[in-house]
Write a structure and sequence with these properties.
alpha+beta; Immunoglobulin-like
Length: 92
């Protein structure tokens, strides 16, 4: 069990480093711009990749981006940027 002062120290460290709380909790951040662009942050890897479907592995579930002519235009360990005609983004 954590001691209260350790918990407060960790909170202060996180705030000082400006680390988003969502990132620490393992939450996936999905930003959709129109029907052509989606950016997904805080994922672990790519499960499958076709022009119709891109499945991403997250800490809790998979995220599936479905559409037409999908392509990954930016891929780092922090985020992935997908372009194409996006029909849906779903958790599976």
């Amino acid at each position: 069990m954590r001691k209260p002062h350790l918990k407060q120290s960790m909170k202060a460290l996180v705030e000082a480093a400006q680390i988003p709380e969502d990132f620490l909790k393992g939450n996936v951040l999905v930003s959709i711009e129109g029907q052509e662009r989606v950016v997904i942050e805080n994922f672990k890897g790519i499960s499958s990749y076709t022009e119709q479907e891109i499945k991403l592995i997250t800490s809790r579930r998979k995220v599936c981006v479905c559409g037409k002519r999908l392509r990954i235009v930016n891929y780092t360990k922090e985020e992935i940027e997908i372009f194409g005609k996006i029909d849906k983004v779903e958790y599976i």
